[in-house]
C-alpha cells in the first residue's frame, strides 16, 4: 500500500503501522473483535518479506513470538481479552528474557467469555504486568484509527529501545471503526540489527548467545531483578506520554482513554455550551502512567474535581486517585457490560459533581 | 594415495598418548549434573556427536524445555533459549521461521512434550516445521519428584499413582511416536532406547537421520528415546536400565515409525520395475 492517506479500519491500520515499522513475523489466533488483524496480516505480510502463522492457540502464538524475537525479528501478535489472558504466560517469559515484541489487545467485555462489545476491563492486566512475577509492559492506549497505526509503529520502537514487550491497549470500538489514516509520519524502516545478541546461524568465532529466565540461586536472581527495576525506573522517567483537550481553564478534569475519551470530547464541548468548564487529560502511555501531570492538575486551585470515565468497574481510577493523593475529590463514572457512553452519560453526573464536588453518588473511595 | 589423517595426540603427566576418544566439540566443558545412571548424559553426548559429525555446531539453536533437562543449555555449546514448560516447539517455530538457516533442536521430556505441550507438539509437527526434537521418555516426572507422566505405564507406581497407574481412574498412557507418524508434516520419527550398547548405537543413527531430515528441508523430525529414572523409579541404576529394556519396550515398541528416506527408496524401487515393464511391452509390439 503506497498511498499516504487511506480510509481504513482500526485493526487494519494497526497492521499497516506494523509493516512500516518493519514487522516480519505475526502469529495469532481468531477471536472477535480483532479478526481483521490476522486476516490482513495473512494477506499482506508476505509482501513485506515477513511470515504469518495462524497458531493452534494464543499460548502458542506468544511463544512463537518469543522465538521470532529471540531470532532478531520485529514480531507482533494481537488478540482480544480472553486470548490475552492466555498470552500472559509468554509475556512474563518474554519480559524476563528482555526480548522486544508488540502485543495488541482489542479489548472486549469480560470476565470469562463476556461478550464481544468494547470494554476496558483489561487495564489492570496491561499495566501491572499481567502474568506471574514482577515486570511491566510499556502500554500505549490509542483512541483513533490513526493512533492504531501510529502506536503500533511507536510500540515497535519502544520495545526495541528498552528490550521489553510493548502493548497496544485498544478497544472493540477503535479496532472496528473506520477513519482516514495519514501514513506520512510513518516511513518504512529497516528493523535494527540485533546480531550482537540474537540467536542465529552465524556463531563461528563468537561467544554463544544464551537467552534464559531461570536463575536457581537467589543470589544470582537478585542482581537480575535489580537491573530490571532500574530499567523500569528509566522507562518511567523517559516514556510518559499524554495529551489534553481544553484543560487549561478546566474546573472539572475528565481523565479517559480509548473510545470513552472520544465521547468525553463531545461531552466537554456540550458541557461548555451550558457553562460547565470541562477539560480532558488523556494518558497515551498507561504504563508508565502520567502521575505527575495529574498531580499538577490536582494541586491547581482552579480544579474542583477529577472525573474518571471508564468502560469497566474502576481500574484506571485507582492510578488517578494515587496521583491525586486526596488533594481533590476523584469521581468514577463507569459503563458496564459492554454498553458504551453517550456524552449525556458523562454530563449528568458531572452536573451533580459541580453542585457538590463531594457527591457520594460518584465519589471514588479507595477501599 | 589418500592422505592419512594426522592422529590427535595428548600429553598426560608427561606421557604422550594418541587420542582415540574425546569430548564432542558441541558439548561445553561443564560436567553433567544429572543423577548417576540417568540417560540424559548419554543422549546429550549422542546429539553432540551427531552435530559434530554433520558439521553444524555453529548453526545450531537449541530449545531448552522444563524438566530435568532445563539446564541442557549449560552442556550444549551453541546458541540456546530456555522455554516455558511445553512451549519449546512454539518457540522453535518462531526461531526457524525467522532464521531458516539455523538448525533448530528442541530437547524435551515426556511431561513437557506429551502433557502440557501436546498441542504445540502436534501442531508444529503438522505444520511440518523444519525442527528436530529429541524426546526423552522416562515415564515419570523426574525433576518434581516422581509424579505420574502421560507416559507412565499401567500399574507403574508414582507419587501420584501410589497404588500403580489404574487406567480406569487415570487413563491410558500416550504413544507420541505412533501419533505423530500419522501426520503428513512429519519426515522422520523413531523410538529407540539407551539400555545397552547396541541400542545406543541405533539411537545415534536415528538422531543423525532426524537432523538430516531437517537439513534437507523434509519436515518435522523426532527421536523418542526411552530413558530411565532410577531415583524416582526407586530402583538401582542397573535394575532401571533392565526395566527399560524388558518392560518399557513392551508398551513403547522401539522402531522407525516414519522415514521419508526409506519412502524415497521404496518409491525408487517401485518406479524401477514399471519402467522395465514398459520396455518389455514395447518389445512385444515390435
Write structural notes for this entry.
The complex is a heterodimer of chains A (367) and B (286). Chain A folds into two domains: 5-199 and 229-238, Thiamin diphosphate (ThDP)-binding fold, Pyr/PP domains (Rossmann fold, 3-Layer(aba) Sandwich), CATH 3.40.50.970; 243-355, Rossmann fold (3-Layer(aba) Sandwich). Helices cover 40% and strands 22% of the residues of chain A. Chain A has twelve helices and 16 strands. Chain A has helices at 10-20, 36-44, 58-70, 81-96, 123-127, 145-162, 172-176, 218-238, 258-273, 291-299, 316-324, 343-355, and strands at residues 5-9, 23-28, 51-54, 74-79, 101-109, 115-118, 138-140, 165-171, 178-182, 210-211, 242-245, 252-255, 278-283, 285-287, 305-310, 330-334. In chain A, the strands form three sheets. In chain A, strands 2, 3, 4, 5, 6, 7, 8 and 14 form an eight-stranded mixed β-sheet that branches. Chain A has a five-stranded mixed β-sheet with strand order 11-13-12-15-16, sandwiched between helices. A two-stranded antiparallel sheet of chain A has the order 1-9. The longest helix of chain A has 21 residues, at 218-238. In chain B, helix 1 packs across helix 7 (197-215) and helix 3 packs across helix 4. Helices cover 40% and strands 19% of the residues of chain B. Chain B is globular, with a radius of gyration of 21 Å.
